[in-house]
Amino acid sequence: MNQEKLMHYQVDPWNYYMMRVRRRRMEEEDEMERVMRIVSESAVVIFSSSSCCMCHAMKSLFCGMGVNTMVHELDQDSKGKQMEKTLMRLLATNSTTLPVVFIGGKLVGSMDTLLAFHVNGSLVPLLKQAGALWL
Amino acid sequence: MASQRIGEIGSSESEPSSQHVPYGVLHGITTSTSSLMNQGSSFDFGELEEAIVLQGIKIRNDEGKASLFTSKPAATLEMFPSWPIRFQQTPRLGGSKSGGESTDSGSTELQFDTDSPISVKASSSDHQNRAFDQIQQQETATNDVLRTETSQNQSTAKSYQEKKKGASSTSEKTLDPKTLRRLAQNREAAKKSRLRKKAYVQQLETSRLRLANLEQDLQRARSQGLFMGCGGNTSPGAAIFDMEYARWVEEDERQLVEVRNGLQGALTDNELRVIVEGYLCHYDELFQLKGVAVHSDVFHLINGIWTSPAERPFLWIGGFRPSDLITMLMQQLEPLAEQQMVGICELRHSSHQAEDALTQGHEQLQHSIVHTIAGGPVVDGVQQMVAAMAKISSLEGFVRQGDNLRQQSLHQLCRILTVRQAARCFLIIGEYYGRLRALSSLWTSRPRETLITDDNSCQATTELQMLQPSHSHFSSF
């Protein structure tokens, strides 16, 4: 397989490059689609890591509010790394950002944003709208 | 000045030279208000004018005539010869001059008698132009003008020359409008530059004071730094943060005074809002400071050595616990509207939930760090250390989130409350912490049975460290 690639590269480098770019774009789109598919499956979706303590804090927060969340442990997912990269791209940041939460299929952000929303009183209405909270 | 002159009138009546009398009267009146000049008084100055003019001409005529159109070495000499010719103009020069520059004239008018050309060199061309301008105004306004001391005329040689030239081309009373405008502009420019100079000097003074204060701070911090360097392993990041925090506390006290004055004084809501927002910015600065410090030394922030001893028991992840603060505020801000009460209760509730979540995460982190340091059955030194370092960076994340929660709570509080209530809030918080710091000072300097010497000479180095920063807080007690 690598030999083939090499020959292809030697014969027509520009075309090869364009092909690679296109493929990467497609992969990224696939990843994004995958993420979107996952987040639409549940009202509240948390992308986390089992060893990350801040993720634990976020889970506790929702738990304490009585909200059921779907947790996606990326360190236990085969494509976890790529998903993490996709999330980083979504949040427009270069540093690892777990946990990341989606409510009602829409991106909310990491712990920072979540706490800000909660304190200024906009989290509860958001949850109610997504059907994650009833009162 | 005025009374002095008027007194002079009475005393000098017997004097041979009659010029003192009109001199004093004129000056006395002009110093009190320049508007008198324009209003026209019942006093008949015509005769006075004549008297002065005649005297002037008599004394100076011989000397001055030759230098009628030359630029002056002695301004005095030039003025007088033209008196008979430009009779109405020169006195106005003097008159306006006295109105504007009473101090100048005051010093020189008595020397009217003497021959010495006491040109008031102090006055710059600005004065001349100003006087000139005033002359023209008065001329156009009214004919009833005071003819005053010629000594004032001494200083206006140049403008006088111009005036002569101008007057010679046209009639006595009309002047070039351009000249008028130019002189007015000169006057304005002079005024502006004087104001600017004053402002600059004031600025210099305040910066000088500030520099002195900063140097003092630096000295103090250096000595503290030395202390703490001996005391324990203080990183440079920690030392810097301590210094910055001390400065923040001083600024806090100043802002507190401002808020207190704002509440007691009859300030409008808008003005109070400015103060409240200033205080919010002040707190934002603190969180920014901590954000930098958390990266350089998270342990320093967590162990709370930078706070006063009495604050330390209540520390939660490197700072105050928002729900506790809100509870305290609710008790103090008693008369609250229904809506505000609901809002504050909700705020307290949500921040409580957030605190619980962060606490749980923090505890798990601590367990994990302990586990990592203790090591498992397979102890790999380097790997262990790397893992532990990673956990410490997670700890940084927790302190950041704690500060984030604190900052958001404060902002939300200000959104819920009215401006006056928010101001009272800040006042309450500031006073609360001030008392805590004062309590710490008292506690560290309390008399102990083992020590024979008086209170303030505690020997323990740690107490001295604490005493130094909190020494200033006695004043708030």
Automatic annotation (TrEMBL), chain A:
Cellular component GO terms, alphabetical: cytoplasm
UniProt keywords, alphabetically: Cytoplasm, Redox-active center
Location(s), subcellular: Cytoplasm
Main location: cytoplasm
Protein origin, superkingdom: Eukaryota
Tagged with keyword Transcription regulation: no
Glutaredoxin domain: residues covered: 44-108
Gene3D superfamilies: Glutaredoxin
Protein family (similarity comment): Belongs to the glutaredoxin family. CC-type subfamily.
Protein name, per record: Glutaredoxin-C14
Source lineage: Eukaryota, Viridiplantae, Streptophyta, Embryophyta, Tracheophyta
Name of the gene this protein is made from: LOC101499954
